[in-house]
Design goal:
36% helix; globular; 2 domains; 12 helices; Aminopeptidase; 13-stranded mixed beta sheet; alpha+beta
């Protein structure tokens, strides 16, 4: 007998957060999340997405043991912008048993139907960020980098058996920073900067409001209306993201491209792969996790390039290539040996081309699924 019920108590939330520790205990590539962050994700006070529409988290229990979990909800702001009635699923985990998966998906899709959704998509980020977005379908032979998804290969089979189909894929590229930077990339960027009169500089962490305003301009212009799962972030969301990432931002790895007149035309944000340290603290910052984190930071040898945006007027003008180049140069000078560039929508042809032009190779694929309701 399997029972599925909503998360309503502190004990339920603790069980929801703790379940992956048992499911992945024998998987050497799994990286335990920070429990404090996950508890905040389940709390509308700390997670703005949960304030944008109805949502619910569920647990599956069999004979007194938690065997699965799932979250679902509706982002009314996104639906209004897209003119659709979409719902999302998130944070799906279960034992290797399709019966459990089906019951969890039944209650999640049922919840979405009752609240007017006509399409279920996911897995989507539970915080409308870059965490847990999409399901890993290729590239299971290495740990995930910071904020990337990781899951067993059979989760894809479970969603497909239930009736979900591919919505779109997102790609992760790998750059070997021990290799010389391609000369043609360096020559091309130098020529583009001279011809189109722009330059790339590190972000100024002493003027976060001013930099956030420039990022807002870039995001408003650079976020395509036809993308199904994204709208330009509000200033409040940008400032919240700054607050969340401020402790981990390395200014040399977060850059803005500007014209000679100071007009922002592109941006890129990269961070060290803190998963290399997070993996060792087993989800707990206290009492000794902080010390292990601080001591381990200096040994991180991979950087994650997780956001690059260029305004349409500067597409095909070398701006994204310049952002890649400046980031690679900074990362190499700081001793990083590799870079994960992720994740890029499969239909973002220009950005995929630029990543490949920077010497990157495809090494992981993530998929967002959809199910008509």
């Amino acid at each position: 007998m399997i029972t599925v019920y909503p998360v309503t108590t502190r004990r339920h939330r603790r069980q929801f957060v703790n379940l992956p520790w048992r499911l992945y205990k024998d998987d050497p590539n799994w990286v335990p999340p920070l429990k404090m962050d996950m508890h905040n994700t389940l709390n509308p006070k700390h997670n703005a997405l949960l304030r944008l529409g109805p949502n619910c988290f569920f647990l599956a229990e069999r004979e007194g043991r938690i065997v699965g979990r799932i979250g679902c909800g509706i982002d009314k702001l996104l639906n209004k912008a897209k003119g659709m009635e979409m719902g999302y699923i998130t944070l799906f985990e279960c034992e290797q048993d399709y019966t459990i998966a089906k019951l969890l998906l039944d209650v999640a899709t049922g919840f979405l139907r009752r609240h007017g959704a006509e399409l279920a998509t996911g897995p989507q980020s539970p915080s409308n960020g870059d965490d847990y977005r999409a399901m890993l379908i290729d590239g299971f032979d290495s740990p995930p980098v910071f904020l990337n998804s990781y899951n067993p290969p059979w989760y894809k089979d479970y969603l497909e058996k239930y009736g979900f189909t591919k919505h779109f894929d997102r790609y992760a590229y790998w750059v070997d920073l021990t290799e010389p930077i391609p000369e043609r990339l360096q020559r091309g960027v130098a020529a583009a900067e001279k011809r189109f009169r722009f330059s790339v500089r590190p972000i100024n962490m002493k003027d976060i409001p001013g930099e956030a305003a420039k990022i807002k301009v870039i995001a408003d212009k650079a976020t395509p209306e036809e993308w199904p799962d994204m709208i330009a972030p509000s200033m409040e969301e940008i400032m919240a993201e700054f607050a969340k990432l401020k402790p981990v931002i390395v200014p040399e790895l977060a850059v803005i491209a500007e014209t000679e007149q100071g007009e922002p035309v592109g941006m890129g944000v990269s961070v060290p792969d803190f998963n290399q340290v997070i993996k060792k603290i087993n989800g707990k910052l206290f009492p000794f996790g902080w010390l292990r984190f601080l001591l381990g930071k200096k040994n991180i040898d991979v950087v994650r390039v997780f956001a690059i945006m260029v305004v349409p007027d500067y597409h095909r003008r070398g701006v994204s290539a310049a952002i890649y180049l400046k980031t690679m140069e900074a990362a190499k000078s700081m001793g990083f040996i590799g870079a994960d560039c992720s994740s890029i929508h499969e239909f973002n042809v220009a950005m995929n081309r630029d990543a490949q032009g920077a010497g990157a190779r495809l090494w992981k694929t993530f998929r967002v699924f959809q199910l008509p309701l």
